[in-house]
Amino acid sequence: MTSPVALTTCDGIMGPRLEMYYLQSQTIGREQLKMKDQSLRKLQQEMDSLTFRNLQLAKRVELLQDELALSEPRGKKNKFSQYLHENASYVRPLEEGMLHLFESITEDTVTVLETTVKLKTFSEHLTSYICFLRKILPYQLKSLEEECGSSLCTSALRARNLELSQDMKKMTAVFEKLQTYIGLLALPSTEPDGLLRTNYGSVLTNVGAALHGFHDVMKDISKHYNQKATIEHELPTATQKLITTNDCILSSVAALTNGAGRIASFFSNNVDYFIASLSYGPKAASDFISPRSAECMLQYKKKAAAYMKALRKPLVESVPYEEALANRRVLLSSTESREGLAQQVQQSLEKISKLEQEKEHWMLEAQLAKIKLEKENQRIADKLRSTSSGQALGLAQENATGVNAASREEASAKAVLEPAHSTSLIGILTRTSDNELPDVESREDLIKNHYMARIVELTSQLQLADSKSVHFYAECRALSKRLALAEKSKEALTEEMKVAGQSISRLQDELTTTKRSYEDQLSMMSDHLCSMNETLSKQREEIDTLKMSSKGNSKKNKSR
């Protein structure tokens, strides 16, 4: 048995130690709780990000699977139809390569195998097309076999199908042979040592033979397919679509057969010309002619032709040198001052107007002189007639003069009583008696002065009209220039408006797409926030439970 003194001493020693241990354990527990809480939050964030990425990847995988399912053909028939639809992607480059090759062969180029660079491109396109033919050949043969295996296929139709399958194999083989020879012909343009010049003739001859073989194969295909179409049209199951399709195929095959025959005959007839060397180039045409050297040779040839043409050009007529030197000072002095030139022009215009006035004056003088001459000639003729007449005529004249005198007296009496007035261009003239004779010279002066004044007035009006016309012409020209500038600015503004409208439409499309993407992102973020709230609530509950458990433990320790 222990004494009570020992127990009291033990309690006094163990009490502070237990309290310290309790405090240390409590602080350690809190730190561990904080660390666990932080690690839990990090793990939860990583988990949320991983789930978000997994959702995106799952959607992307679903889209890719849908696209793959749509792109994959279903069955051999779909694959064969897909290959047939790809025919244009192989035929169009082949046609373009042939056109480029044809355009590169002109009269201004040195056309030999070493310079026909476009032949290599055509050979590559032909190779890709032959690969396409090899790819579709098994499907063609398989379709013919399936047609032969059907219950509606007759023996004659089966025989035609077998012949067509053999023809398709022959056609592919002929194309392969033709591609081999064309590839050999395309080697000199890229690799000088790829094909010897001594083998050009044999290769070209084999190309001609291959073309003839292609023509023969096409004739067989046309014949056998025509027979097959005739048999199919006689079947009760033949539809209108099948008939029209067969007609289209037959017309295409016939056109291809005719074209192949023409190409083969043309090539075979001109093989010797193709083999023959050019008239100029390296000696005996034995060396390699690179495309660059051919281009340089053509450039020098064009320069030489242009130089010879310039030498043959006739000289342009010009002012003699001495005359140009003599007039040089006058020209320089006249061009030094624009005011002097303007004054000279004004003086020349005044001189021209004066000369025109003098011209009109002298024309009037000439007319008056002509009138005087006619009057003088008339007077002389009258005198001659009066002297040559006889006495009887004189008596008759005396009687006539008496009668005229009486009539004149009566007329003068009337004139005295009633003077008559007449108007003309020069004014008002009054009729006088025989004693008051009109002054001819004064009348001529009046006419001359009137016409001179009229000419001066018309000349001034003409000059004024000319100046106005020049002014109006300048204004019209300026207005036309302004109108042209306004039209150009209008066109530029319309183009800018079009560009602005296009940019506005593009921006609207981008705005709609961004709006949709933002809405999708917001929806996904809202889902993510909901999940985060749920996790936070769970974590809070766990923290509360941990706190409650820690409080319970502390109470238990205190009770102990």
Brief account:
With 560 residues, this protein is mainly α. Helices cover 83% and strands 1% of the residues. Among the domains are: 1-72; 81-277 and 290-307, no CATH class; 392-433, no CATH class.
Describe it for me?
The chain is mostly helical and 560 residues long. It has 13 helices and 2 strands. Among the domains are: 1-72; 81-277 and 290-307, no CATH class; 392-433, no CATH class. It has a two-stranded antiparallel sheet with strand order 1-2. Helix 2 (75-85) runs antiparallel to helix 4 (118-149), helix 5 runs antiparallel to helix 6 (200-234) and helix 6 runs antiparallel to helix 7. The protein is flat, with a radius of gyration of 60 Å. Its main location: other. Keywords: Coiled coil, Endosome, RNA-binding. It comes from Leptonychotes weddellii (Weddell seal).
Features:
single chain, 560 residues, mainly alpha, two-stranded antiparallel sheet, 83% helix, 1% strand, disordered N terminus, Protein phosphatase 1 regulatory subunit 21
Detail the topology: elements first, then pairings.
Blueprint lengths: L3 H68 L3 H11 L1 H18 L13 H32 L5 H32 L13 H35 L5 H30 L1 H5 L15 H21 L9 H16 L1 H51 L2 H27 L3 E4 L2 E4 L9 H120 L1
Antiparallel strand pairs: 1-2
Helix pairs in contact: 1-13, 2-4, 3-4, 4-5, 5-6, 6-7, 11-13
Pfam families: PPP1R21_C, PPP1R21_helical
Main location: other
Subcellular location: Early endosome
